[in-house]
Amino acid sequence: MGRVLSREEGGVGGTEFELTDTDFRFIQWFMHKHAGIYFSDRKRTMVYGRISRQLRRLGLRRFADYKLLIEQDSEERVGFINCLTTNKTQFFREYHHFEFLENVMLKEWSKQGVSNLNFWSAGCSTGEEPYSFVASLYSKGAFSTFEQIQIYATDLDTKVLSHATHGIYSDDAISSIPPKYLQPCFFKGKGSQLGNIKVAKGLQQSINFQQLNLLDEWNWQEPFDLISCRNVMIYFDKPTQEKLIKRFCQQLKPHGILLLGHSESIGSCSDLFKHLGKTIYIKQ
Ligand SMILES: C[S@@+](CC[C@H](N)C(=O)[O-])C[C@H]1O[C@@H](n2cnc3c(N)ncnc32)[C@H](O)[C@@H]1O
């Protein structure tokens, strides 16, 4: 699709739906206010594409009519936010984080006599990230070493969370799972599930999936040994990123670990964490 012209620009013709400058400003404001997500003007075509699917489903021609629905109907509002989140993920993404967990942190926690591990996968999308953590922990015998392992996995988007909770993935997902985790931690589907894989039930039970907007209040009972918030803050503006990094720091145990995505950093909060390289941070 080429550039989406707005009505103000005199160019609605040729596009299927009407998305004016005012509409786009509303979307920018709404997503920033409710999800922390910032859409620059360059994202307009992408936004148009995603909104189009919603308008087509509802038989609407103008975003302005959809806006009325969003304002009145909370379910439609959730669908609107869901359609504008970017959920790209995969198993064992940024594998060096799992190597660090297995080769460094598990030994360290064990040496320190830690008995319970508490992790948070913040912005877990369809679940590949928390399932990779449990597979990684399982492969190193952590479920025998530690008395209790709890992984909280949260996302704003209710649709991806539903997928994550079911834990069923298509064949394509297999290619990103190193073979040493595949056989012990995943089942291959049969019959109607042929070609799909599912995470072993015992492992699935150690993950607690919850809907959570990172901008809202958190009510965690216990501090975390590790927080993974990878490829999430990249969509937020600088002040929102900074606020979150400070809140993550407060939510970690002393010397707790923060993992960020490959193009993310702690920015101006360098007094709170020591950088161990490859976007791995330890609370100071
Ligand atoms: C690109 S995915 C990253 C998934 C995974 N962490 C990874 O690195 O593969 C970003 C996720 O962040 C979620 N997200 C965006 N804004 C959020 C917010 N304000 N609160 C919670 N989750 C949010 C999106 O719904 C999306 O599923």
UniProtKB/TrEMBL annotation:
InterPro entries cross-referenced by the UniProt entry: Bact_Chemotaxis_MeTrfase (IPR050903), Chemotaxis_MeTrfase_CheR (IPR026024), CheR_C (IPR022642), CheR_MeTrfase (IPR000780), CheR_N (IPR022641), CheR_N_sf (IPR036804), SAM-dependent_MTases_sf (IPR029063)
Entry keyword set: Methyltransferase, Plasmid, S-adenosyl-L-methionine, Transferase
Reactions the enzyme catalyzes: L-glutamyl-[protein] + S-adenosyl-L-methionine = [protein]-L-glutamate 5-O-methyl ester + S-adenosyl-L-homocysteine
Residues at which S-adenosyl-L-methionine binds: N87, T89, R93, E129, D155, N213, L214, R230, N231
Assigned EC number: 2.1.1.80
The protein's role, per its UniProt record: Methylation of the membrane-bound methyl-accepting chemotaxis proteins (MCP) to form gamma-glutamyl methyl ester residues in MCP.
Name of the protein in its database record: Chemotaxis protein methyltransferase
Originating species: Vibrio aquimaris
